């Protein structure tokens, strides 16, 4: 378990991670009532989703389907699956609708499920990363 935690912390460039059953998620309830409270945003699911997208954004087309990147894509898809309802609420923010023309879940799933890297979605993906990073830094009170 220690090796898994160390690997996840290194993969997602976070300070620490708590594994709770599903080995892609860390402690954090930023999509629950009350926001992130005292948790570091990097150690929350939304922080992990932003990190996954940001990492894959920088990946070359030829490396899109390497094993580590397949694992990252699977983690991102699992986060969207688990928090799809909450992402729909996130999408109602006017900034989100101004920057992307579809829902965050649809965009992320399209991007991560693609067999080849989609350059046409790159702009939308980096916009979502910026919005997610901004969201987790909001004062929850």
Number of helices: 7
Q: Over all CA atoms, what is the radius of gyration?
A: 14 Å
Describe the global form.
globular
Relative helix content: 55-70%
**Structural class designation:** mainly alpha
Portion in beta strands: under 5%
Order of helices and strands: HHHHHHH
Residue runs with pLDDT of under 50 for 5 or more positions = 20-30, 35-41
Query: How many β strands by DSSP?
Result: 0
Largest sheet: none
Overall mean confidence score, pLDDT: 74
List its traits.
mainly alpha, 7 helices, globular
Account of the protein in words:
With 141 residues, this protein is mainly alpha-helical. Helix content is 56%, strand content 0%. It has helices at 2-12, 45-57, 67-82, 84-91, 94-99, 104-113, 122-136. The longest helix is centred in the middle third of the chain and has 16 residues, at 67-82.
Summarize the structure.
With 141 residues, the chain is mostly helical. It is built from 7 helices and no strands.
Chain-wise SSE layout:
Layout lengths: L1 H11 L32 H13 L9 H16 L1 H8 L2 H6 L4 H10 L8 H15 L5
Helix pairs in contact: 2-3, 2-7, 3-6
């Amino acid at each position: 378990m220690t090796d898994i935690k160390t690997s996840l912390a290194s993969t997602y460039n976070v300070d620490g991670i708590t594994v709770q059953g599903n080995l892609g998620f860390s402690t954090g309830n930023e999509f629950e009532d009350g926001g992130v409270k005292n948790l570091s945003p990097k150690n929350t699911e939304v922080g992990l989703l932003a990190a996954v997208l940001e990492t894959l954004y920088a990946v070359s087309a030829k490396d899109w389907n390497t094993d580590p990147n397949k694992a990252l894509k699977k983690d991102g898809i699992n986060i969207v699956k688990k928090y799809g309802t909450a992402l729909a609420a996130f999408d109602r923010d006017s900034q989100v609708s101004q920057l992307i023309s579809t829902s965050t879940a649809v965009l992320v799933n399209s991007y991560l499920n693609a067999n080849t890297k989609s350059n046409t979605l790159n702009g939308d993906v980096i916009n979502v990363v910026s919005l997610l990073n901004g969201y987790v830094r909001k004062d929850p009170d």
